[in-house]
Amino acid sequence: MPDITYQELKPPERILLGPGPSNIHPRVQRALTAPLLGYLDPYFLTIMDDTMQLLRSLFRTKNELTFPISATGMAGMEASFSNFLERGDVAVIGVNGFFGERMVNNALRCGAEVIPLHAEWGRIIEPEAIEAALKSRPRIKLLALVQAETSTGVLQPLAEASRLAKEYEALFLVDAVTSLGGEELAVDDWGIDICYSGSQKCISCPPGLSPFTANQRALDTLKARSSQVPSFYLDLSLLAKYWLAGNGRVYHHTAPALLVYALHEALVLIAEEGLQARIQRHARNGAALHAGLEAMGLALHAQPGHRLSTLTTVRIPQGVDDLRIRQRLLNEFGIEIGGGLGTLKGKVWRIGLMGHSSTEENVLLLLSALEKLLIDEGYSVEPGAGVAAATQNLKKKAN
Amino acid sequence: MPDITYQELKPPERILLGPGPSNIHPRVQRALTAPLLGYLDPYFLTIMDDTMQLLRSLFRTKNELTFPISATGMAGMEASFSNFLERGDVAVIGVNGFFGERMVNNALRCGAEVIPLHAEWGRIIEPEAIEAALKSRPRIKLLALVQAETSTGVLQPLAEASRLAKEYEALFLVDAVTSLGGEELAVDDWGIDICYSGSQKCISCPPGLSPFTANQRALDTLKARSSQVPSFYLDLSLLAKYWLAGNGRVYHHTAPALLVYALHEALVLIAEEGLQARIQRHARNGAALHAGLEAMGLALHAQPGHRLSTLTTVRIPQGVDDLRIRQRLLNEFGIEIGGGLGTLKGKVWRIGLMGHSSTEENVLLLLSALEKLLIDEGYSVEPGAGVAAATQNLKKKAN
Questions:
Q1: Cβ(A271)–Cβ(B4) under 8 Å?
Q2: What is the value of pTM for the model shown?
Q3: b/e code A128-164 from CB counts within 10 Å (16+ = b)
């Protein structure tokens, strides 16, 4: 090897309040230090079975095909499109943020035709628009919506969309990357046919896995394809042969066993907390953050009534330097928050309160830190107003 | 959540002598416990830069585009085909094992036409066959070979193939999943245009990443595509925008930061050992294993003179139960070895000596354990012959 220089690995500790990853529980991190096993080791197979069972509970589904794809949430998105769409299919896709645009990008790469449902970044897709699109053409194959738009902080209602998808016989696909484990989601009861998420958001497992589920209706579509799935790595039929014990556990790729351990432990932590309690925790802390930010005179970007607990977009006040605030939060307080994506770049901050990062302490710390830095920037804010409002909100919710 | 049962995570310790993953060094596992960072954290970006630099040394390349893809080696394979082949292209692919077949599968999914170069599973692809295929048609886009066939234990020579690829103006693609960090490989000196590997074999990092490199000649082909790359997740142009600092570090997916830490540490360990010393260690231990197995009267499956040090295929003697031996190795000795894949299922065992698993102790332990179990199966073997031959071989090499 030629001479090269490299550093000793010494990452600083961070409070991760950005768009993900979130902080991980010490038990999850410890799971990564368990002995590594081969991808067909009998003990590892039992952990796979456990993990699928725990994931089914989290998705609230009985779908047999429920497992983590061995790559990040973006691979879950790609698997959702590349398995169920083929050349010439038509898909209706909600585009009210960065990840809606990504879904369109994925659908186009499958050779599908896309009818985009545009809405302002920060607003929901309205049911009327969905219905108009679904009835505009015969045989629409798929309706896709992002439940929790990480770029805008909007929580998309799904009930009416699901009913419409059934009425017009389209598959209903939901991106739950920033909602699964933090916002209400019930795959079976809500009639969702295909759903994917990411490990590193509200589940608080390290990044690298994409929890995925699809029901029989979706799998029937897959079986009826006239062309091969373009991706070998994300071919669900092959993945199912490895993951589902009844299918013979046929080798497809070397499972990232340590990440599966971590996911297993993260899911056990969710089971211990209780899913409803966890969602309420996210709701409580999200509401407190919203109250605190508004008490500081800041404007929340997402449409009122449709705001996520797990990710909040707040408008950057005029005259305040986006990057300087974020850098000072990181360097002086060890807090990461996210900048705006796409058309919201420089206009909003994105504050995540996901999984292990969604705590009262983090809400109060962030509000205090932000207040100090905003005052330094010349922004006028009543000292203590944010923390006081958040505290009061938390107290109210506790009663 | 409905009532579900799950177990506490308590994987047994294993000596991983299968086709991968290999055992990982305690320092690599400890790297997984370092604080998690966001995908654009300034410190994490420096670890990405380091990791790319260390990977370039390992691949022996100056290619700027050299980074780990955020999924396992099979995704590296898919990226290699789906970025550089498109509908109507013609590829010549060596098919002398399971992974050669996989390459064909991937090329066909790209809509390419494949000229397969078949050879018996256990033999190399001969240069004459390569030349005949390359001259059989004008404008062949790509020649693909597996350097280390994990299914057969064959080490494919690459020098003449590389020369022929240049002569016929085809891109030269090499699968180095079971060779990188364990067998000799020099991407630039050997004229390899595209090369991928897996993290969990001779690098001894946990599974989940695929080291990848491509040179300017390959990237020019990518730029000249007439159609979009079918995969968003594996689109190298987008990945390069995130990984390469000069391209603006544009978000593409959430990097699996803890796996990148582990890879960084695994690569530092390789730099400390020295790449040549490491390859010699693999050669020494592989030769000792071969000598030991042959002294036990067992037949090595791969073509003499073209045997891998990192993975050995040995024929299962008649009358010996494949599965029972492997299960007893696992249960009584904690040793994992692999069964045969594809046409070699039930016919060979696959013994890996990769990375941290490639030690003299493991060679001697495996030979001893195998001897005991073979005798139990009624196979006639001179007690101690395998270990004696391996020990002698190791001594000879040490002098």
A1: yes
A2: 0.98
A3: eebbebbeeeeebbbbbbbbbbbbbbbbbebeebbbb
Q: Which of B3, B9, B44 has the highest number of chain A CBs within 10 A, making it the mutation to test binding with A?
A: B9
What is the C-alpha separation between B368 and B145, in angstroms, rounded? 35
A38/B33 Cβ within 8 A = no
Mean of the per-residue pLDDT values of chain B? 97
Asked if B109 and A231 come within 8 Å (Cβ–Cβ), the reply is: yes
Q: With contact defined as beta carbons under 8 Å apart, do B36 and A23 qualify?
A: yes
Cis (ω within 30 of 0) for the bond into B21? yes
In the predicted model, is pLDDT for residue B1 greater than 60? no
Kindly state the average pLDDT of the residues B270-296: 98
Give the domains, in start order, of chain B with CATH numbers.
Answer: 26-271 (3.40.640.10), 275-398 (3.90.1150.10)
Give me the mean pLDDT over the A134-155 stretch.
Answer: 98
Task: Give the pLDDT confidence score for residue B106 in this predicted structure.
Answer: 98
- pLDDT-based confidence at residue B3 (cuts at 50, 70, 90): low
A232–B268 CB contact, under 8 Å: no
Percent share of chain B, pLDDT over 90: 97
Count CA atoms closer than 13 A to A357's CA, side-chain side.
33
Q: How far is it, in rounded angstroms, from Cα A78 to Cα A292?
A: 37
B126, HSE (Cβ side, Cα atoms, 13 Å)? 6
Q: How far apart are CA B351 and CA B153, in angstroms?
A: 9
Give the model confidence (pLDDT) of A49-69 as tens digits. 999 999 999 999 999 999 999
Test the B interface: residue of A22, A185, A199, A231 with most B CBs within 10 Å = A231
Q: CB-based contacts of A270: which residues, under 8 Å, 6+ apart?
A: A54, A58, A181, A203, A278, B1
Provide the pLDDT for residue B176.
98
**By CA distance, what is A271's nearest residue in B?**
B1
Taking the Cβ of residue B266 and every Cβ of chain A, the question of whether any pair is shorter than 8 Å is answered with no
Confidence (pLDDT) at A3: 66
CB pairs under 8 A between A and B: 263
- Distance between CA A248 and CA B55 in Å, rounded? 36
The answer to whether the CB atoms of B208 and A208 lie below 8 A apart is yes
Q: In B, which residues are within 8 Å of A16 by CB distance? A: 36-38
- Window 82-121 of B, Cβ < 8 Å to A: 82, 102, 105-106, 108-110
Count of Cβ atoms closer than 10 Å to residue B162 Cβ: 19
The whole-number average pLDDT for the span B292-309 is: 98
pLDDT exceeds 60 at position B388: yes
Q: Which residues contact A375 (CB under 8 A, 6 or more apart)?
A: A381, A383
The answer on pLDDT for B2 being more than 80 is: no
Q: Indicate the pLDDT class of residue A1, thresholds 50, 70 and 90.
A: very low
Judged against a pLDDT cut of 70, whether residue A279 lies above it is answered with yes
The predicted structure's pLDDT at residue A173: 98
- Burial state string for A186-215 with b = 16 or more CB within 10 A and e = fewer than 16: ebeebbbbbbbbbbbbbbbbbbbbbbbbbb
> Please, what is the Cα angle at A385 between A379 and A388, to 5 degrees?
155
Say whether B70 and A72 touch across the interface (CB within 8 A): yes
Residue A399 has pLDDT above 70, yes or no: no
Question: Sign (positive/negative) of CA torsion B363, B367, B373, B377?
Answer: positive
In this prediction, residue B138 carries a pLDDT of: 95
Give the residue carrying structure tokens 């920037």: A377
Query: Across the interface, do B232 and A78 touch by the CB < 8 Å criterion?
Result: yes
Q: Taking a C-beta distance cutoff of 8 angstroms, is the pair A242, A1 a contact?
A: no
- Please answer yes or no on whether A6 and B50 come within 8 Å at the CB atom: yes
Give A 312-341 residues with CB within 8 A of chain B: 330, 336, 338, 341
Say yes or no to pLDDT of B248 above 90.
no
